[in-house]
Amino acid sequence: MRVIITKDYEEMSIRAARIIAEQIRRKPNSVLGLATGSTPLGTYRELIRMHREEGLDLSKVVTFNLDEYYGIAPDHPQSYHYFMLENFFKHVNINPRNIHIPDGLAKDVKAFCESYEKEIKKAGGIDLQLLGIGRDGHIAFNEPGSSLMGRTTLIALAEETIKDNARFFKNEKEVPRLAITMGCGTIMESRRILLLANGENKADAIAAAVEGPITSQVTASILQMHPDVIVIVDEAAASKLKRKEYYKHVNKILEETGF
Ligand code: PGA
Hints:
The protein is an alpha/beta fold. 36% of the residues lie in helices and 16% in strands.
């Protein structure tokens, strides 16, 4: 894992957007795995700016989102479909046919999950997967105890996640209890993974994911097994990492030597 510690959210977002933009420039038909939540908003804003001001071309990019609430329609203002459209897709030149987000209204959930996996394979696999992390250490909606080798599936949201996400709904009762999510196994097949976190409330989850044991109780910890993961965290989210100085030292060398 390469751990990059930035001074704040803004710098985290800019670093992340640059990595995604480089990927798109190197391979215009890149397959991107995308995430929702507060964490990647700044990254999307920066990518939109790059599209408008620097001509970043997303016309050939293919995207797969990590997850979607189950039981709400795509046009529901709290659906992840709506989030992606409002915060990213409608501001860039992505081809709507290239966008994939789990169907929160799928009748045959098992068949849907299998077809989502097949679509990812058909597209050639995910080149770069963007991830946030939950306070309970989840990636996508892989809550504590989820299989570290799981595939796309229906899951029940943990109480902590329901509470955290209630801020977007009228009240806690309105938060869907189920979601469709890529599994850890699906995520681990991505060629490259970019994990972002900011704020003090993510410090425990980041410490557990990066320096703790690999355990299904902190599903982000499986990323330690992946050969190409970049973790970008602000100072607050990095505050409980024991080897902070070491990560800074490594990055300094890599930057000085141009790697
Ligand atoms: P957040 O969510 O970016 O809104 O903090 C992250 C997550 O739960 O994965």
